[in-house]
Each structure stands twice: as structure tokens, then as C-alpha cells.
Records
---
Amino acid sequence: MSDISMIEAVLLTIITASTPLLLAAIGELVVERSGVLNLGVEGMMIVGAVIGFAATQATGSPYVGIVAAMLAGIAMSVLFGFLTLNLMTNQVATGLALTILGLGLSGMIGEAFIGQPGISLKPIAIPGLSEIPFVGSLLFNQDILVYTSYGLVIAVYLVLFKSRTGLIIRAVGDNHSSAHALGYSVISVRYLAVMFGGACAGLAGAYLSLIYTPQWVEGMTAGRGWIALALVVFASWRPARALVGAYLFGAVSILQFHAQAAGIGLPTQLMSALPYLATIVVLIVISRNKNLAKVNTPACLGKPFVPDR
Amino acid sequence: MENTQRSAHSAGVEDLIEARGITKKFGDILANDNVDLVIKQGEIHALLGENGAGKSTLVKILYGALEPGAGEILWKGKPVSISNPAAARKLGVGMVFQHFSLFEALSVVENIALALPKGEKIEALSRRITEVSQKYGLPLDPAALVADLPVGIRQRIEIVRCLLQNPSLIIMDEPTSVLTPQEADQLFITLQRLASEGCAILYISHRLEEVKRICHNATIMRHGQVVGSCDPTEETPASLARMMVGGEVHEICASEHKGSPGDVMLKLRNLSIPSDGAFGIELKNVNLNLRGGEIVAVAGVAGNGQSELFDAVSGETLIKDGYGVEICGVPVGKRKINDRRLLGSAFVPEERLGHGAVPGFVLSDNILLTRYKSDPDLIRRGMLNQSLAAEMEKRITVSYDVRMSHDNPEARSLSGGNLQKFVVGRELDRVPKLLVINQPTWGVDAGAAALIRQAIIDLARNGSAVLVISQDLDEIYELADRIAVISRGELSEAEPAAAMTPEKIGLLMAGMGETRSKVTASNAGDVHAH
């Protein structure tokens, strides 16, 4: 019995470790499908984390914090959009600058909140389903952001591949000149995608400061934004693969802690590197079909669109 | 095949679209200067002009992709403003682009759905595509991925996409440049049928024979202005060309090459290369002997292994069997491009911007890039000899009539024809013993094309060997001593040009020469005659 509750506890922490990666990756996936490479995920995420925490402290409601974090992420992404889409700045440089800005800005805003105990978001048990032994509490007794992350994977899949909106997003990412020639507004589509990415990164940040560790610590994203970016590429821009990648990374990073605690005779550095290695290997194996990779890679990724009028 | 409704278009038909005084400026350049154009319902109207004459600008304005600086457009007699392509489509204007307007990563039906108003289910649209494409003899598989399809089929998608919008005017930019003669014939039947149903077609082409054959009226542009209009049926291709260029077009003189054939300069021996995964074509057992003093042309529809063949000969693809490619008697299969250049060969790839020349580099730097190894003077004590490169740039641009706004510009600032003249000139300036050239005059205007073709012929007459890969049959007949046809990675026997009728080439393009039907291939002409 105690074994089962032990496994359950481990699985719960895996979900907790994976959710922020999944949220950020699914947003960036849509951004990149529209042909924009936003390397500022880390920056948008940490600003989301600090704003979410601050808004929760101010109002006492974590839900207000979640909305505030999304808005903060969107604000950052609009800045990115203005620079890259209107002023045609280099997307890579602008994304890097956004991350640096976000890290600095969050440190400044968050100074007053260091060491304050946060208000944690309570799980929502789904009546009936959550009483199923083992599976119930794992899947149906989670907080709203975990449910949201699953919902987003399904929604993004349906929108991208089954709806006209998604068709337009993919078209803009594949060949912006043709999309423009057909009369689609490349800039508006990309703005909306970039803002969606910002909102998702904000959510991922809120998850960190409201659920993962309900407090504000400077630099608490700890590179998760970069992992999310890498997951998108290795998932060859497919939502379901991003889910697999995020959970795999989360799982291995939790399991290696337990393995270290259990005293497996491997150097700790190697153990800490395991999540990265495992994720890369698995995602390379999933996406080894070069044909599919070619078709899924947005051909206009990172290229600025300059209409010729 | 002659059009019988021609007389019906001379009078009494309502004007469909009229452009009045269209003017468009790009910077200091007047791309369109007070242009007038009238297209009647149900007529096939040719728009002729050299590269840079302003045809594309005018067409983009009619399609709403550009806004005119001045002038007005009347649709069925009423002034309209066509502010974007969606507005043009709503009026009933459809456009078949020359290239770059399909989404490769999307399927046929998805590509078409993007151009239609929303609301239709993908399944219903697929059925409609199949229906319309069969009705007009342009079969399409709605579920196929564009990236997997050859260029001829891609054009079909564009046409069907256009037809599904029930247009009253279809604008076609160089539609036959990627088709086999048979496919082109099929297209003409489709166009004539559309015209007889009342749809007007604005037809842009460099091929004056075609214009003469199918068009009812022609408007000719030069330097942004309309310089004349005519009934193409009453003109000859030569007189049409004169109007376009505003003077005599250089007549190509291909004096029969005399004397005994020279040494073998290029030998392909059982050259086989597996396709490089993705969307490549496998080369199967290609054999060819090319001697000094002769021009051999490889005909074929785009995407049948031409670029793979070019890459194997130029050294962009190295092959395992060193003896598969021999240049001047040296097996070079495993040697790189510069080693092959050192043996006296020169290569002109199909894509001039980005492959033949680096867009952001000035011309002299582009000379350095391909010639630093073969012209040792270009490197002095380990440093680039910029001044010699600049001299060469001057020499080449003068002798190949490369027109540019100022000396030594960036490659991307040249128009297509001028850049092609530069790229060809850069290689011919070395007087190579072997020249391999892929699509020498693709998208190049008549004047520049004549210059390039003459230069190729002169090179061969002076004893060099030339391999021309081209989709343009007129060009092939103008240049080639012998013709081979490539189809799905297999190359037919190179036979004297006189023995290769367009029908025979067409059949070989369609796969008659492939190994499965090798027995009948040699009698392809007879088979056709029965």
C-alpha cells in the first residue's frame, strides 16, 4: 500500500514539473507555426511569474494572479511583435533581448516580494471521477492550470489541423508571400499568434510562482523557457509530441532526484543531465521521418515579412 | 487547334475591364507610365513585353496586390477600386501565378481552400475539385501534398483554384514555361473552352508562337508604357518581337558545326544516384558522351532529375563511383566543384539568385567566389585581388551587356535577365572547355535570351563542349546539335536534333523512353504515327 502511495506521489510531482514546460511549449508552437521565432519565452515566463505572484498577494485571489500573469505575458509579446513585425527587427536578437529584459524587470518588480509566503492555488476535484482509486486523484484532482494545459493541447491540435484559422496560421508560416498574395494579413495573423504565445508563457510563469513553489524567487524559471523552446523544435511542431516531450523531461528530472536519493552510484552531474539527454533521444526517434519533419517545419520561420507595396 | 471564334471578338462585345492612365512609381523608376488596357469578355488577350517592361506591375495592380499611384480601373463600365486580392476575387478576377504562390507543406485541397471564401467543408471542396478538374481535363488528387508534386501539376492546382472562384477574368503569368508540348496543348484547349464560355483571359508569355496561336488581341509594353496593340494572328513572331524590343532582335546564327567532332569532354557512365530522401528524384543509369564543339541539350519537364543531374556533373553531389562522371578524361565522381573547374569546366545552375550568385554580394565578389581557384591571379600572397576582380566585372558587364544602375552593384539589384547575363558571362569569360548550363534563359526576356544563346553557340563553335538542360523546346531546337530527354531520372539516347520531332520529345518526356518500355522507345515516332 505504501508503495502505491509512493508511486502516486512521484507521479504527482512529475505532473507538477511538466506542466509549466507544456504550457510554454504549446504557446511557442503556435507562434512558430505562424513563422515567428520568439526566443523570449523565458523572459515572458518570468514576468508572468512575478506579476502573477504580485497580483495574488494584492488581491488574495490566485485566479486574479493567473489572469494578471497572462496579461503580463501578452504585454511582453506585444512589445516583441511591435519590434519584429512592425519595425522588422531581427527576431533572434529581439527574442534574446526580451529574455534579458524579462529577467531584469522581474527582479526589480519582485524585490518587495522576496521571502513572502504565497497563496497556493487549490486543486479542483472533479466530482465522481476524482474518487476512482489511484487514477482519480492523479488526473481528476488537479489545479485549473493542469486541466488548462491538457485542454490547450487538444484545442491547439484541433485549431491548427482541423480549422480554417489553423490553415491560415500554417499557410502564413509556410509561405508568407503567397499568403499575402491571397489577401491574408500576415502581420495580423502573426500578432495574434505571438500574443497567444505570450499568454501561454505567462500562464507557465504563474504556475511556477503560484503552484510549483508558491513564492517569488528571483530567476525562478531556471531555464524552463529555453527547454520549452527546444521541445517545440524536437516535437517537430506537433502538439501531441510537445506533450510527450514535456512529460518525458518532467519525468526524468523527477526520477533522477529519487535515483540520487536512493544512492545510485552515478555522478550527480550525469544524473542531472539525464532529462536533457533522454528528451533529445526520444524526440529524435519520434521525428526521425525526414519527410514529415520537412512538411512540419514552418518554411518561413524567423524570416521577416516585408510586403512589397 | 485553330481558334474559330476569333472573328466574334473584333466588335460588339462588352468591355470587361478597362484600365485608364495607370501610373506606378517605385522610387525613381516609373514602372507603369499612363498605361491603358481594355479587355473584352471572352477574349484571350496577350500582354507582351520584355522583363522590366512593367507587365507584372500592371497585373499586380489589376489583381489588387499593388495600389496604383494614379489612374482608374473600370469593371464592366463602372469605376472600381481593387484594394486587395480579396476584392479582386470578389469582382471575379483570378490569377495564376508564375511561381511561388502555393504552400508546399499543405495539401492540394488546403491550398485551394485558402483562396476560397470560408464555409465549405474540406470533404465537399475535395469533391468539387475532382469534378471541376475532370471537367476541364486537369486531373488532380485533392489529398496530395504539394511538395510531392511536379511543377506541371502545381500549375494545374493554381488553374483549378482559379476556376473554382468562377472568375470572369483569369490572369496567367507565363503558364506554359513549365509544361511539355502536350501539356501545353491541353492547356490551350482548356483556355479556348473557357473563352468560349465567356471568360476573359489575360495571357502573359514570352513565347510568341503561342500568343499567335491562341490570343485574339495583344497589348505590347516597353519601359512601362503601352507601345502598341495588334491582332497577333496577323503578325509573325518576328514582328511581335520587334514591337517588344523596339528594334530588330538579334537573329541567332547557328552555323552548322563543321569538321570532325572533338575529344570527349564529358562522359557519364552508368551514373546512378539514389534520391536524397525527401522530394528528390533517383538518377538511373545515365549515360552520355559529350564531345568538344557540340551542344547537347537535355529536355524534360521540371522535376524529372534535371537538378540531380546538374549537381552530379558539377560536383555539388559527390558520387561513390569515381568513374561515373569523367571530365576531359579524368574521373571526377569523387572530386569537388573547384577541382572540376580546374579541369576546364564551368557550371551555371538554374537558380541565379542564391545559387548562381550571392544576392547580397557585389558582382566582383561574386566573380571571386566561383573563380578564385581557376584564375590563380585572383589570389595574391593569400589575399584577394579585389582590383583584378573589379576589372573582370567591368569586362564581363560590358561584353555581355549587363545593364545596371551603377557600377558593381549587389547581385540582387539586377533584373533577372541582366543577372543571368552576368552569371553566364562570368563563366564564359573563362572560355571553359566544358560548359554545363541549367535553364540558360528561364524567365529572361527575348533580347537577353538571344545574347545568351548566341554566346553559347559561339563557345561551342570554338571547340568547347556544352551541355544545356532546358525545358524550353524552342531554345533546345535553336541550340542543340543532339537532344536527349530526361524522364523520372532516366536519360534517353542523345540523338541528332533533326531526328527529334517535338512529338517524339513529348513522348519521351511522358516516359516512353524509360527502361520498362525500352523496346518501343526507339520507335516512338512510329508509334505516334499509327
---
Amino acid sequence: MANVERRSEDGGTLPITLVPVDGPDPRAEGALVVPRAGIGRSLSAPTEPPDAASVSGSDPLDPEAIRRDFPIFERDFGGRRVAYLDSAATSLKPRSVIDAVDGYNARYSANVHRGIYALGEEATAAYEGARDKVARFIGARDRHEIVFVRNATEAINLVAATWGRRHIGAGDTIVLTELEHHSNLVPWQLLVQEKDADLEFVPIDEEGRLIQANFDALLRTKPKLVAFTHVSNGIGTINPVREMVDRAHAAGALVLIDGAQSVPHMPVNVAELDCDFFAFSGHKALGPTGSGVLWARRELLEAMPPYMGGGEMILEVHLRSTVYNDVPWKFEAGTPDIAAAIGLGAAIDYLSALRMDRVREHERLLTAYALDALAHGVPGLLLHGPHSAGERAGVVTFNLPGVHPHDVASLLDREAVAIRAGHHCTQPLHERLGEAATARASFGVYTTTDDIDRLVAALRKVQALFA
Amino acid sequence: MDDLYRAEILEHYRHPHNFGTLEHPDVTQEGSNPLCGDRLTLMLDIDEQGKVTEVAFTGRGCAISQASASMLTDRIRGLSLAEVSKIGRQDVIDELGIEISPARLKCALLSVDTLRRALEDRVAWQAETEEEPA
């Protein structure tokens, strides 16, 4: 443990007890809900070798046990539990996260970094403790590199509005990809319109993988920034981030990674990825809505102008000038979503106890199971994205010929099977796929093969209805 | 799930009435539902007495939006604009005769909202809020 002091907003000093970033395994810290493991139905998919970085199938997650930690599965949907297959939109929340949020609101709901009294210090310690958990979870070397925001969208907008407005000028190029969520597209459109700069896009192949030769060609135009998603929320493609980062850096570009769909589902280490900016949403990672994170290298954050002005982001304010606070607080103007940050910390404890290599292996096996079950169980179904589960996260996107995805989703809802239908905030990707809309089933730690069996059975009923 | 869509809805979806284009329409109006990417193009022939003599639509969409367009175009052919102006959003919901969840309301109302925009210069529409019908 280290004690540091930081000037509080009202001029005093405020001791904050910090857990070092390279501190002990969170499972050793006590007071965590350790998910049960080792019983129940396990998955096997002999045709799919495990990821190189992943554990073998000998230590699989037990989703049935995990479900007992998620109160939503106690709800009755016409005699059934919900088959929740929309985790890419937002994840369900375990009891420990709900309790962490409730605990803040019920027992110590004071503001952070202000009150010189026990409740305020307790709130500050919990909020800053959550920052330490995030730093450790994503492999940040320095807790000052973790900026709390509302979601990945806000993180990307923050970078575009601060680093982007300072460093992107007329004629500069930003390279994106055809896979991007609107949140990693529209902020850059706004920036290049303002600066008279250009956007270029790495295209995808027939399986929804980025065409690396085109990426290399675009790098020869010397872009200032390359921004792309770690995992496609639209079709599940896992991009080769480290290799792309290395090549972008060699070409002189900085790299922003949208990690909204990777952080909840696989081990992520920003130091190993060697990127410059990394954004993710807490609410897709078992945390509360309103929790999100921007990570950036400290020297970048320190050189960036503030995003919003107000309280907390300052050290000294005079009528005509202000001395800004240190990073990351410089970017956290106003009272933050304290409860959400604390809840995100609890979500990270939960995921850490499960171990992200096991989470990835669970979802890879589920994806292989789903691809096989859908291809063989639903005649004529059109599957999008990479064919191999090793190249994709737990996102399975499809069209049922002759039936609009909205009808599919409405009819599946009658069977308490919850999927997403539409363009999933990726309209350019859908133009590329030649579909106005698709249906998408996406998985989480609590997803079981039974959920997928129910999906397949319900799709067959839809087919029969429309035949 | 069989109870969600009546057989008549599915029949209109499979074989929509008035699906196609008019050669020289007096009015053409496009409508879209950004949520699901549905698009609808509505074409009307209107004679000098202000009567809808012919109507057609094209586009793609879900069963609810296609069936509602099919039913609505059936309903307005031969009506005067004064009669058309009395058709409200709730009438369209009632004619579909199925439970429409809030998320699907835009699908159900795409055709009538497109019709209202198509005729906004010609018809004094009966006042109706843009809110969802009760």
C-alpha cells in the first residue's frame, strides 16, 4: 500500500490510500464474491483448438453456478428464465455489483475529493480504489492513466475533442475501418469536418476480417491517427491489434483502440497491445451504466487540453485564469458517477476472480457451439463474420432469409429469447454486408449452451411460421 | 409465438397488396425507420376532384411495416383527400389488430406517417400528437 497526497479542490490535502498497480491478486484481498466453479455442464468442442493464450478446457467456467450470482435469472418469464443473448449491448449485473452501488448510496454517499470527514474520505477511497482496480485489470502501468467517463463513446469523443483538435489539421488523415461502431466513426467525422482533414477506411474481406494489405497501403499516406475496434460489435471479428499497432507506429501514427467488446470478454493488457489510447464501457463488463474508461499514455494525457471545465478539474481558479488539476482528474470535471465507478470496481473483482482467460475460453467454446448449432439446426440461415470461433468473440450475427430481423427478435421474445435486431450502431458495416439489418446473439459469462439451444429451437419455429 | 402475428398479417407480408410503382405519380414520398433500416416509397395518383385514384408502394421492411402499408394502401384507394385526412395513427394500429410493443410502433406507423408527409401540402390533417397512441 502506498499513501499519496493530492491537493483537494478546496486547497487542503487529502490522503488517498492506494493499492499499487502491480499489487496483489485481487482474489487475495478478501471481501470479494468468488464465483463458484467446477460443477454443472461444461462445454466441449473438439474441432476447435483453444487460443494460444488461453487455458485448456480442463478448468472451464460453470455458467449455471455463475447465474446464481445474477438476480435477473430469478425473474419469471412465462415459466422460464430469460435466455439473454444481448451482452454486446449491455451485460447483466451480478449481485456484488448491485450491492456495491447500493452500498455507496446507502452508507457513504458523500462527494469525492472534497469532504474532510469520514464519509467523504470513505467515498474517495472507494472511488480511487476502483481506479486502481481498472488500472490493474487492463495492465496500465500508472493509475494516473485511468480517466473515468460515462462509456466508450465519451472516451473517444474526449480524445477527438482534445488531442484531435490540437493535433489534426487541414489535409491530415485519420485511418478507421469498415467495422467501426458509430461511436468510433462520428466523433472523427465531426473532427475532420471542422479541420478539413480526411478519413480513410480499412476494408474487410468476405469473412469480415480487415484486409491488412489495404491497411499497409493506407499507412503509406502517413496518417496522424489510426483508430479501430479490438473486437467488432457487429460481427465479432477479433482484430490483430498488436501487429496493427506496431505497423501504425512504424508509420508514425498514434493508435486508439475501441475495447468496448474486448475488455468484458478476454484478457486485455494495454502495455502489451502498446496502443496510445484505449476506450471501454463498464456497463458491458458487468458494471453499472454510467461507468466507462479512457486509458491513455500519461505523457499524452498531460499534454492534452482539458475536455470539460468545472469543478474537480482545477487546482487554482482566478477570474481570468485557471491552473488545471493533475491527470486524470483534469479530465473529470464535475461530480463523477461515483456509484458507477465503485460498481465497476466490483465488476472487475468479479471478472478477475473468474479469470479472463477462462472467460475467453468459455465464450470461444460457446461461439463454436453456436456457429455449429445454427448452421446445422436452421436450414438456410445466413451467418456473417469469421468462420472460425478462434477469430471471433461471442457475437453471432445472422439473417433468416425471408424474415426481417425485427420480426425474428419480436417472435423470439415470445419464447423469452432476447436478441438484438437492427444495424447495431454499425450502418456502414451493414451497407458492406448488403443487409439493412441483421439479428445478433451475443454471449457473456452467464451464457449456457441451453440458451443457444433455445435460440435454435425458436428460430425453427419462426421459419415454420413464415414458411 | 404463433399468437403474435395473425395469419392475415403474414399473408399481407408474403403477398403485399399494391406493391410496385406508378408510372407518373402525382405524389411520391419516401419514409424510413432509422432504427431498423426499413424504407418505404409511397406513390399516389390524385385526380382533379381530390380523389386518390391509384396508390402503390415499394420498399423493404418487417412484417408489421409491410402489412400495415399493404392494408393502408388498400384502404385509401378511391377515398377523397377529406376522407383520407380522417385516418389516424390509432386506426392503423386497430386494423393491424395485434399487440404492438413500443419498440415496434415505428414499424407499424411507417406507412401512415409517410402518407401524412406525402399529403401535408394538400390535406389539413386532423390534429394528432406525434406521441404514441393511447
---
Amino acid sequence: MGNEVRTVFSKICEFVLTALLVSFFTFAAFSIIPGDTARVMLGPDASEAQVQQLRTELGLDRPLAERYGTWLRDAFRGDLGNSLSFGTPVSELISSRLAVTLGMSFIALIIVILVSFPMAAFCSRNPGNITDKTLSTAGHILFAIPPFALSMMLILIFSKVFHIFTAGRYTAPGDNFGAYVVSLLLPSLCIALPKIAMTFKFLRASMIEYSHSDFVRTAKSHGLTDLRIMLRHIIPNSAVSSITVISLVLSDILGGSLIVEQVFNLPGLGRLLLAAISRRDFPLLSGIVLYLAIITVILYFLADIFAAVIDPRIRDRRAA
Amino acid sequence: MRSSANSKRYLYIGSALLAIVAVFFIIGLIWTPYGINSTDSASKFIAPCAEHLFGTDNLGRDVFSRCLAAARYTLLVSFAGVAVALVIGTITGLLAGYYGGIIDKVIMVLSNSIMCFPGILLALVAVAIFGPSLYNVIWALGLVFAPTFARVYRSSTIELLGRDYILSAKVMKVNPVRIMFVHILPNLMPQILPAVIIGLANMTLFESGMSYLGLGVQPPAASYGKMLADAQSYMVTAPWLIFFPTLMLVCYILGLYFVSEWVRTSVNGGSK
Amino acid sequence: MHNSRRKVIAGALMLALSFSAVSCSQDNGEAQDGAVYGGEAVVGITQEPMIFDPHTVEAAGDKEILFNVYEGLYKYDSTGTLNPCLATDVVISDDASEYTFTIREGVTFHDGSELDAGDVVYSLNRAAELIPELSFIEDVTDNGDNTVTVTLATPNSEMLSYFTAAIIPEDSGDTIGDTRIGTGPFVFTSYEAGIGIVLTRNENYWNPELPYLDKVTFKVCADMDSGFLELQSGAIDIFPYLTTDKSSQLDPAQFNVLELGSNMVQGLFLNNAVAPFDDVRVRQAMNYAIDREEIVNLIMDGAGLPLTTAMSPVMGEAYDTSLDGTYDQDIEQAQALLAEAGYADGFDMTITVPSNYLVHVNTAVALADQLSAVGINATIEQVDWATWLDRVYAGRDYESTVICLTSDYAPYDVINRYISTADNNFINYSNPNVDEIITNLPLTIDDGERISMYRELLGYMTEDAASVYIQDPYSICAVNNRLTGYELYPMYVQDMSTVRLATAE
């Protein structure tokens, strides 16, 4: 019991440290890269005097270190401040964009799981037969096509040939939830397809391994049906060992959504991040980076906990 | 028997695919049918034909010539980037996995922070300090990808620590550096190779994504990833601008992937 | 006081030279009597709107939208002519130091309050503080008879085009960026970051015939490619700033494509303070080395006007047509000049380009290819926009760059950046003769005299080869055929007031 409390406590410490470090990196990066929010907002036609005035209005005349200090203090109180270039609260901006990025990641993950598990289960029963080979080869090729190119091809096919998709037509979940999911389906598919190949390959290998293991043989000798063995023994066991893969896939999915958002013109976190960087909007960027840190840390935290629960070697080491 | 035949086939197909890329790379260094960067308004957007095998692009440049030349940048970016990531990731991952405790914590916190940090911002920083050049961006790319390798190394190292030969080496007071690099590292190959292949693939893609902010390969030079990014505007009118760089990338990534598959199965085959 | 009432048309110095709208069918079918009121339109924009205060806004992407919301005493139309708007008339004193405006009656703001001289005095005073071009205003007086007199610190005959500055309700300056209350044909209804801006019809617009549409949405697109897809799918009706390779893909049965000279100046700008560009012979040699026609064909599919000097011929009489062809490609001449300057074998140079402008990046690629013919080895260095503004434009820490200069539709606005002390003289150009002419121009009243001064100035700048001027790119806009009445302006304006449905929906 004491151990678990300590683990959770040390995890929280780790998280706070990570968040602090990331935000410090952001600050350090901003003190190095050239560029100025006021100038970007006003464009080249503005006079020096106008730029200076806007700088003063935005508080940019204060040194960056001081602004970072203020931001850090407010962030600890849960206030991420206002975006310089949008003029609206950072937390509002982020939450409006999270619907796209998280929605897309979630749908992509579901697609990955829904496709790769049955595919792997099916192929692992008769490894080497024609279906297995076809699916494996298809998986390999999908894995090798860049998501960038894949997105373009799918847009071409679905909007030009079938006329059933409009790039950039996005509906907020609050307006119409069904339309929201539909508008994210194709981009999610583009993120999911290459990951399916990766997950499928891993799952197939581990399922083949498990189907040769002693307990499956025992189960077979007890007269359990193949389906029951698959559902009761093989899938749960491979699911456990594939958690690491899935957590890796998830962080890939988050990263992949950045590129896909660009190609599909979706107002997601990735585009907000690019906007924050190209406008040198320090509070906004710090806020986004903090959010990404929270999401990533939670993902790894969950993966670690699962792994620790399942894998005795890691569990023992933690206890020691 | 079957599996060895299978893995041989992986080797053959993989090598054949990589050979295509290698041939492009070598020819591109020596000769191209047209000037790589010679623009001509009279020959814009010519579809693939006998004179221009892969067609021409928006500035009238021969895509086949550019594909020959692009091989060097794609190979350079992906290999150099992965090499940097691998060196950093290997050392930190081994240390974290082997020692555990506070070293592990520090390294994991650092690697998590880097993973949360936007790679494009890191590349901007590298460019701001050293000026926009391909080599500076490679450092940034390497750093971005290092934590992935560190994580793989760390968890695999922890797995190996329980093995008898590691335990006995520890008991025999073998130098920890020797244990890490002689006893552990070679045994991690099966886990690392796929990670390297995925890293190579991701690296080429990340580099093409960075061209949105003008980072990475500078024009008029182009890698396959950058050719793809540039082709986005013309995907409807000139699909060959997407098709050929994609084909080259698929050859490259699939080739690497098959070869790694062969390595993995032959190593695993030996141990089982 | 010898006031002479003059009918002022700012277009006096301008010629409708470039208004050759290609395949433009603005008046197809629907006659005025058949005009349809009501309906909606969506305009695609690729830049996130940022500032809505009409006196601090600078970004062209913001200005072109706010044109529909705020109005000034005078207002441009699509031919570049200045027309009376919230003023009905102006009287300029003979020494060009006093402008007296008669305020239009019966105009109401979007909040229902009536426009009066007090609003005008307040707005002009505020604008004088915030807009550099209006800083010459010394005093604004309400004459009590519904006229307002503006007194300038120094006589200035070039001022009228700046009286397009927005008139806002008295004392609303602190909140105008949020309330966005003007007198324009459309009311600013909402703005959502990353999504866009919604404007709705101003029911009480002073011109009862306008506008036609009930609602106009300016929708933010990630980039031109995604916006173009939306245009084709019908999610967007009007998409300005297209490139020719895009517009040529459009089905003429579904879209009107309009083209117009944009009064922009694209060039390879050379830092005149840095070697070897401090040598006039090197700058001239580079001008001779390039083939502008080829670049226009390559980058714009011919949709651009090759330039010889710092001003576009669309500026009309202020431009000197005898300069045309001065720097037609002449490789031998270029090599001779380079040899004379001591660079017979050429030299290495860097072109710093903002990576977000594909046109400029492509132009740099074409330039590097052409310059290599005379031994000049140009390396391209892409930087992001914020870095470009900071390092190149404000910091002047660069060798050469490709960019497009924009200006108001007034010749003085085009050339005043070349005075050696100007903030925005980022190429470090310096010529005492040019300085003198630019200083004297606003003090000169006579139009004919001003025209000859502009021509003399352009002569100096051409001889100096201040930079390598390339082209005035056409502005290209596609309009879905369900709409009609859209007019392209030779400046950053998206005028929605004349847009209407082609047939009732």
C-alpha cells in the first residue's frame, strides 16, 4: 500500500518536473529565435512607432524572463493567460482545437484496434497461407506509404472520384456530433492506416508465439474451442504485451495528426501550434506545449502502470 | 525450413528494392539527363513521356533528374538523423535501464520533455543559432528522435537484466560499461532494428513536414519528402509529381523494412 | 484665403491601364432591375484575421475585410478612383494646407447613432495619432455648419487618399477593436479564431441600393491548396489571390476567373549597403542578367506585368513609359559590367526568402538559375515570416531577398520608402537627388509638375538599379457563378457590397 502511494507520488513529481522542463525549453527557445509578435501582427507596412506602441500594449517591452516568470506563476494557479495574437484566453483556444486533435486520435486508435486485432487473430491461425500473405504484404506497403502522400491520394479518390468528401468541411461536435465524426473519418483513416500495419505485425507475431505456448496447448487438450482459446487466452495475453506498442502508436498518432490537419485543413492543435510558432505567440505556445506534455505524460503513465501490473520483472524492480 | 525460405525471400525482395534506390543515388551523383535545377517556362507540367520519363514539374524541371539527385538528400537526412538519435538513445537508454533509480528518473524526465517539445521549434532554434543549413537540422532531428530509441533500449535492457548471463557477469564484477556494450547491446538488435527502420521512415517524413516552415533541405535542392510537400499544390493537375517521389520512398522504406525483417527472423531463428 | 473648389479625383494621376479583366463577366445577364437581394456568400481567406481597430490595423488581410465595415470621408472604387463617401465634398486651399469636408447627412452607425461632425473630428484626431501618414494633421475643426476643416502642419497635396481612414463613433476608441462599429454596408457580427468572420447586411446603409447579400462569411483556410479544394466543392464561393495553375483548373461553366494588375512590386531586393551590391555596376549587371518575361511565364503563367523600376505601370501618368525595356536581358552587357566591377568570374550570394510565400521561393529558384549564366552563384536560404520581418526587414541583416512590396493606390506611397532616412528603406537605398524630390513632392500643388517630378525620380532610380525589379503580379480571383457583381480592386479590398446572387435561390 505504502509502495503504491509512493509510486503515484513519484509519478506526480516526475510529471511536474517534465512540465517545468518543457516550459523552460520553450522559454529558452524563444529567447534564441528571432521574431516579434507585434511585427508579425502588423506586417511590413507598419511604421517602427506603430510596432513599438503595439509592443507596449501587449507588454512585450518587458524582458522575456520577466514575462516567463509571470506566466509560470499564473500557470501554477491554472491561468494560462491570453494569447497575444488572437487576444482570446489560451485555454479557450486550446479546448476548441482539442476536439479535432483528440477526436481524430481517438477515432484513429479505434480504427487501428478494430482492424488490426481481428486481422492478426485471423492470420495467426494459419500463418503462411495465402490470406495471411496477402494481408501481410498489404500491411507492409501501407506502412511504407508516407501519410502525407496517403492523405493526398485519399482526398483525390474520395472527393474527385466518389464525390462524397469535402476537404476542410469541419463541423464542431457541439453543432452536430454525427457530422463531426463523419468529417474526421477520412483524416483519421489516413493516420490509422500506416499504424495498422505496425500494430498488426506486432500482434500477429505475439499471437503466433502464444498459440504455441504451453497454456494454449493445455487449453486445447482440455477440449476448448479455437474461438474460445482465441478470445479467452491469446487475445488478452497479446493485448497486454501490445500496450507498449499501442502507447507508442498513440504518440505517433498525435504527431501524425499535425501533418494530416495541414493537408485536410482541419482546425486542430497542430495548426494552432504552427500558428503560435510562426507568430511568436509565447503564452499560446507555452500553453499548447503544456497540454501536449500533460497528454503525453498521461499516456506513458498509463502504459507504465499497465506494464508494471503485468510484468513481474518491472513490478519487482519498482518495489525494490 | 519454411521460415528460413521465407526470410530469404525477405532478403531478396528487400535488397532488390534498396538496389533501386542505390542505383538512383549513384547515377545521381555522376549524371542526370537534364540539369537538376534548370527551369524552363516552355516545358512546365509535361506528363511522363519518352523525353521526360517522370514528367516535369511546375518550373519545367525534369522530375527523373530530380529523383536521381534527391536520393542523396533523402539518404543523408534519414541516415545521419537516425545515427545521431541512435547514439544518444543507445547511451541514455542503456544507462537508464541498467542503473535504474535516480539516473533512470532523470533520463526519463528529460526524454519525456523532449518528446513533448515541438520538433519544429527545436529545428527553428538550431537554425537560429547555426543558420539554415541541412546539417543543423539533422542535429535537431536526431535529438527529436533520440527519446524513442532511449525508451526501446531502456525497456529491453530491463528485460535482459534478469537473464542468467547478465546476473553472473554482475556477480563476477565485470565492468558495467562492458556489460552494457558487450553483453547487453548485441542482444538488443532484434528490438532495435525495427525501431531504426521506423526511425528512418519517420525521419524522411518529418523532414518533409518541416518544409512548411522552410526548414530542412533548402531549394532548389530537394529530398523525396520535400518533392512530395511541394507537389501538394498540383495533386489534381500533375499527379505524377506525387507518384514518383512516393514510389521512391516506398522502395526505400519497404526495402529497409524487408531487410530488417530478414535480420530479425534469422537472429530469432537462431535463438529459438 | 483663395479657395478654389476642385473636383478631386485621386485617379487624376492614374490610368486604367491594367484593368483588362480577363474572361471577366461581371455584368453577365442580370440587369440592374433584375438584381436579387438576399442570400449568403463565403469568401476564402488564408490569413488569420488579427486586428479589428481600423486605425491600428496594418495587415492587408485584415484591411480588405474591414473595408466592408468601416468607411472614411472618401472611399476607393474598383477603378482606383476616390469617391466621396461620408463626406459629400472637399475644398482644398490653394496652398494645400487646409482640407474642408462637407459631412454626408443621414448616415447612421451600426449601433443606430447618427454620424455628426463630432464623430469626424474625434476619428481624425485619433487617426492622426495612430496612422503615420495622417500625423501631418495639426488641427481638426468643427465649423458648425456640418463641415469639418483639417489643417496640416505642412502643405501636402498628396493627402486625400489618406482620408479614407475610418470614421468611428465619438469616444469609442478604447473599445472599437471589440465593438467594431462603423458605417459600412455590412455589420461585423462575429469572429471566431481559426474559423472566420461573419458579416451581416447593414439594413440602414446610407446607400439604399446596397448591399445585396444578407450575410457574408470570411472563412479561414489553412493554405491556398485546402482553400482551393473548398472552392471546387462549393464550400467557398469567392477565393481571391489564386495562382494561375489553380485558376486554370477551374471549370468555366461553374466559375468566373478575374485578373487584374495589383499595384504590387515584386523584386529581388538588394541590400545596397553590403558588398558587392554597393557597386552600381553589379546591380545593373544583375538587372541585365535576368529575363523577366521568362520569370513571369514560369511563376505566374504570364499573369504579371514585367517591371523595369520601382513603380508599376498601373500607376498611370506618374510612371514613365520611356523607361520600359531599359533592362531587357543582355548577358554580354551584364558580363562586361561585372568584369568592370572586378567580378569577371562572378561571386557568391545568398537570397533570403520567406518560406510561407511559395511564389517568392519559386522566383528565387528561377533567379538563381538565370544568374548562374553570368557566374553568379546564388544560394537560397528560407526563413519563416517572423524571422524575415525581424532579421531582413527591420534588422536589414541580409544580402538579398525576394518579396512583394504593397502600397496604397497612390504613387507617393509607392516611392516614399526610398528616401534614405525612411524606416522602411530596408534596401538601404540612398541618392540625394531622390531624397530631395521625395521631400518636395507633397509641397508641390501643380499636378503636371508633380508628374514630371515622379518621372525624374524614377529615372534616377532606374539608373541606380536600386534593386532587381521583376513584376507586378496580377491578382486573380475565382467567383462561383451563383454570384455576380464581384469587382476586383487594384489594392487589398474585398468589396462585398456589390456582390449579389445571380438568380434567386
